[in-house]
Amino acid sequence: MTLTAASLAPPASPALLHRVGDRALSWLDAHRDHFRLTPEDRTSGRATVERLKPVGELAINMHVLFREGVAGSRQRTRAGALLDFAWRELLDGGNVLAALQHDEPHSPVPMELYAPFHELGHRHPGLEAALDVARRTTSWTALEMMPNRRLGLLNTERRLGLPPTADFDQAVARTWLGQLPEPWTVQLHSAYDITHTVFHLTNWGAAPDRMPPDIADYLTRYLPAWLDDWADLGHWDLLGELLVVDACLPRPTLDARLWERYAAAQDASGAMPIQRAMPEGDPEVVFDLLHHPTLVAAFASAMATSRALSADAG
């Protein structure tokens, strides 16, 4: 990794930032049926969890779009329809999550998937009762997981208004980012650890003021170099997540040069490739490769557009 000075490029225009998200949302809407669980998915608990992850990501990103208030009427209608589709059809009004909680009572996954829908007013009393029982056990707090995952679990409890099962600040201190390591040691896995630590710290960008000053200073110093490096590698999925991190900083750069490269990588359909060019092949396989980076593009767009408009208003 080559550490470079922070870019002096001007910030990207709100129109460019918004266009990336609008195109991504169009692709997600057009491919909504690929989010469905198949009968084969339901035969294995592990397969069900893997197939449900995109549904949870869809819900989080649509929630962000609503929260930031930067969507036009067409986008809001489309995002609302996707959220309703996810809750009613993909999750059967929460019954899919309740069944998974019954099968794996100490898995945090049903609770994590439930959180964005709960925040939007959806309720499933049976699931909430099962979660209450599970969280009373020692097994719940004894679950072994990576520090970043523990932080995500604590943030989910906070989103649901539940008492925390561990100390949040101590959980932050145990993460890779919380220890402020040498910046040149960042590799692909630790880069994703960084982005998700920021997401959990700030509740998916809703509360950037929760980021500790030392972490904000560290990211302000080194994030521009990481952004340049992953852009040069054409790793659009990770670059999108790092652009969200930029939008969560006290003084986001919204670097026009980077956003123009990111927008140029987006397919005309609105899909965003993981890395380099668009994949080809079976539509189901291609969807599995594209849904995450495209959801990230919608997330990054909503956050950056919101920050750009706030800066203009200021």
From TrEMBL:
Protein name per the record: DUF6895 domain-containing protein
Domain DUF6895 intervals: 22-302
